[in-house]
Design a protein that fits this description.
19 helices; mainly alpha
Length: about 450
């Protein structure tokens, strides 16, 4: 009775929070709109970077690259609505922001270059179908993901993303002036404003701390002349989505590696879902939430391929946002999804957001990525730290963090295998799953003298 009461108290939103801390509550729009925009801003640049990278590798003309960027925003908005609001059994119905997966980039680039962009989209469509099928049957495979495994997943996510956050703070990957004082200063400004509001303010000001920090950094960047608005003035006002605008082709050589990577990526999706419920709702996800969430990833990826975009997956940045702000209303995130759709339909709006300097985003995501790792540690705090579980956690983290840092260990493998190893999360996740299956469980002595598996 006591635990039930406490759960009800935790899930009941405080009066001054306007329902933003209840997953099924809809806060007033004056509160929900800025919170929703805040959820998607942190992932915006990451979402549009994937098509830019692949288009650049395939040497596409600027107009086709811009077309793919708009498609990426539109599809991410639709996918976020599907995930947060749900459609029948599809969707976790949790505050999850969807976007284009970085994990597929190393595999899709050689496909796009060697076989063409339609082949890459065809492979992505098949990968989406595979993910949806896995999601449908996920309840039968839930035993593969006990708390010691999922908690380790979430810790991995945070740790592996931390260097990315610092790269943004330094000006972004490949920046000519990487590490310049103005980049670090802008990141520090966002960091200080966000932490200050989050810790020393109450109500809406605490909840929108990351958004205010981003706006403060953006305004400072404009004042200092570090924002380029040329793309905004040259962008069209309206751009409608065009299904099969690039085309789709099916090549077995492209389909096999993408489908295999899609199946392994399910572990990342589960980690994000678990991290969201642990960081924001203080509980494990239900079987329905896990199954619906993974199915939504697959269906959204199929939709993405049709509308000229790449595989969709939950964005880990949002896990950190949920843990940082405590805002768990799925309707708030759905508003963010609508904002993403509009950005995909209104190129000028998308161009304004794309003009936010990497360093400004870096100041925000530094905190969020750290909060992801914290959510994972919180999940693991309920796991017995016996020899078995410590071995699973330690070995998995060693593989996830250490292996990608030593490229010479796997340089002789195929490009597809190298791509999966370089992600860090995939080999680490597989290590955790396999060790959990093969290591004998601890024996616990009961008062009557018998023993049982721990």
């Amino acid at each position: 009775m006591t635990s039930t009461t406490s759960e009800k108290v935790e899930s009941t939103p405080a009066d001054n929070r306007g329902g933003s801390h209840d997953v099924n509550a809809m806060p007033p729009l004056r509160r929900a709109i800025p919170l929703g925009i805040q959820h998607v801003l942190a992932m915006f640049v990451g979402n549009v970077t994937v098509p830019i990278i692949i288009a650049g590798a395939a040497d596409l003309p600027p107009d086709q690259t811009a077309f793919m960027v708009q498609a990426a925003m539109f599809v991410a908005g639709v996918a976020t609505l599907l995930q947060s609001l749900g459609l029948g059994p599809i969707g976790a119905r949790l505050p999850i922001v969807m976007g284009t997966s970085f994990g597929f980039v190393p595999v899709l680039i050689p496909i796009a270059v060697g076989l063409g962009l339609p082949a890459a989209l065809g492979a992505a469509l098949c990968g989406g179908i595979a993910m949806a099928v896995v999601g449908l049957f996920l309840p039968w495979f839930r035993f593969l993901f006990p708390p010691v495994v999922t908690g380790t997943f979430v810790v991995m996510l945070g740790i592996l993303l931390m260097p990315v956050g610092l790269a943004y703070a330094g000006g972004g990957f490949g920046a000519a002036d990487f590490g310049s004082i103005h980049h670090l200063g802008l990141a520090a400004l966002v960091l200080i404003v966000t932490i200050g509001l989050h810790q020393f303010c109450r109500g809406i000001w605490s909840e929108v701390a990351p958004l205010v920090g981003l706006l403060a950094g953006f305004c400072a960047a404009i004042f200092l002349g570090y924002v380029d608005f040329s793309k905004v003035t040259g962008a069209d006002w309206v751009s409608l989505p065009s299904p099969f605008g690039i085309g789709i082709e099916f090549h077995l050589a492209a389909i096999v590696p993408v489908v295999l990577l899609s199946l392994v990526t399910v572990a990342e999706s589960i980690g994000d879902i678990v991290g969201t419920t642990a960081g924001g709702l203080n509980r494990e996800p239900t079987k329905k939430e896990l199954s619906g969430g993974v199915m939504a990833d697959g269906i959204a990826s199929v939709f993405a391929a049709i509308f000229n975009a790449f595989p969709q997956i939950s964005f880990s940045q949002n896990v950190g946002m949920v843990a940082l702000t405590g805002v768990v209303s799925r309707y708030v995130v759905a508003i963010g999804g609508v904002f993403l759709m509009l950005a995909g339909l209104l190129p000028k709006l998308g161009s304004v957001i794309s003009s936010i300097p990497n360093a400004v985003l870096g100041g925000a995501v530094l905190i969020m990525f750290g909060m992801i790792a914290s959510a994972g540690i919180k999940m693991l705090s309920s796991v017995p730290f016996d020899k078995r579980n410590m071995l699973i956690i330690g070995t998995s983290l060693t593989i996830a963090v250490g292996l990608p840092a030593q490229e010479g260990l796997y340089a002789g493998l195929s490009e597809n295998v190298i791509a999966m190893i370089e992600s860090g999360l995939i080999p680490g996740a597989l290590t955790a799953i396999v060790l959990n299956l093969i290591l004998p469980k601890s024996r616990i002595s009961l008062p009557d003298g018998t023993e049982t598996n721990g």
